[in-house]
Structure formats: C-alpha cells, structure tokens
Amino acid sequence: MSSKDQTAVKEYANLAPVYDQRWSFYVEATIKATIERLEKNPEGKILDLACGTGTLLTYLLEFIPPENLFGIDISEEMLAVAREKLPPGVNLSLAESNKLPFPNNKFEQVISTNSFHYFRQPQMVLQEVHRVLKPGGQLVITDWCRDFVTCRLLDWYLRWFNEAHFYTYNSKELHNLLEQAGFKNISVDQYKINWFWGMMTVKTVQ
Fold first, then answer.
1. Coiled-coil annotation: which residues (predicted)?
2. Residues in Cβ contact with 3 at an 8 Å cutoff, skipping those fewer than 6 apart
3. Are strands 46-49 and 184-192 parallel, antiparallel or unpaired?
4. Cα distances (Å, whole numbers) of residue 180 to 122, 127, 184
5. Over the stretch 18-63, which tens digit does the pLDDT of each residue have?
6. CB neighbour class for 103 (10 Å; exposed up to 12, middle 13-18, buried from 19)
7. Do residues 197 and 150 lie in contact, with contact meaning Cβ atoms separated by under 8 Å?
C-alpha cells in the first residue's frame, strides 16, 4: 500500500464514526441513482468495491440474499460500522481494490460508488474486476464527473490539498480506461443530484 493510500486509511479511520451522518444526503442520493440503473439479479453474487460503511449493501439486501453480497474496503474502521448495520451473512473483507481476495469468475456484478477517484492504479483495479467477474458479468461505476465544472474545480482543489484524493475523470477518460481493460458495451449516464454534485454512472460488461 502506498503512503498516499495509507493517508486515505487514516482519513477514513477518523471519519468512520460520523461518516453516515455527515454525508447522508450525498451517499443516499448517489446510491439510489446507482440502484435505479442497476440490472437486478436476485440469484447473482455482487461485490461492492470500497464498500465503506455498507450503505449500498443495505439497499441491495432488499432484493439480494445476504450470502450473495460481498464488500471490501481498506479501512477496518469503516468495515466495523458496516458490520453493525448488516446481517452476519454479508461477506466483508479488509482488502485493496487492486488485489481482490477472490477467485476468477466469481461475481455476476461488481459495483463501485463514490470511490473511483481514490484509486491510484485504476488499470490494475479494472483488471482485477475483469478477472473476478463471470463472463458477461456487469461492472457499474458511479463517481464524480469532471465534465461538470463544479467537479473540475473540486478535483483541482483536492489534488492540491488532500493527499488521499487521486483524480476525477470525465466520461471519455473513464470510457477509455474501461475499453483498455477489456470491457465492452460501455454506457455512460451523466446527471446532477443537486446544484453542486455532477455525477456519472457507467455500466459495462466483462
């Protein structure tokens, strides 16, 4: 783990006790937008990449049994909050997104919400996701979108003043990264959840 990844771990260790309260509107809005765009498969296994406090997983429990839900994160403190919210059957692991502790072809879907801008090795992350997805499996990424001026300004600010942040992509850049990693049938949906947050949800298949 790089020193800047360790900075992210420390940042979220401090945020974990208050994260859900501080970011409630943003997290709920982006997760609902993600689920609206998700192809729902009650029998499929889903991995929540950088699951944080497990809010997405709580929503997925409405139509996915707990034993089919998996989450990984680099913050043990965030996972501790998730464990308090989720039933025991949900599988949570301390792991990095570029070193997934799963065999090939395990998941029907992998979802990443609000975390892709932290990944310092995005191609390695996407290669790992490609590896653990079953043939024809779906990857869904929801994150900030640099095509919106507010997110361009935020990206500039955070790259100067927050070591944990890496880069906010525009839709074309993320599309190209996915193509290079071998993904197909890539679609991008851009939207705003309020006047500030400009988001994109990208869907693609292995």
1. none
2. none
3. unpaired
4. 11, 9, 10
5. 999 999 999 999 999 999 999 999 899 999 999 999 999 999 999 9
6. exposed
7. yes
What would the two tokens of residue 14 be? 């401090």
- Strand, helix or coil for residue 136: strand
Per domain, the residue ranges of the chain are 3-205
CB 158 within 8 A of CB 165: yes
In the predicted structure, residue 190 carries a pLDDT above the cut 90 = yes
| CATH classification (class only), 3-205 | alpha beta
Give me the sign of the Cα torsion angle 101, 84, 141, 61. Answer: positive
So what's the pLDDT on residue 1?
A: 66
- On whether the CB atoms of residues 34 and 140 are closer than 8 A, the answer is yes
Identify which of 69, 43, 72 has the alpha carbon closest to the alpha carbon of residue 58.
69
Structure tokens at 118: 């932290």
pLDDT, residue 80, reads 97
Strand partners, 73: 94
Burial (CB < 10 A; 0-12, 13-18, 19+), residue 85, is middle
Q: pTM score, two decimals?
A: 0.95
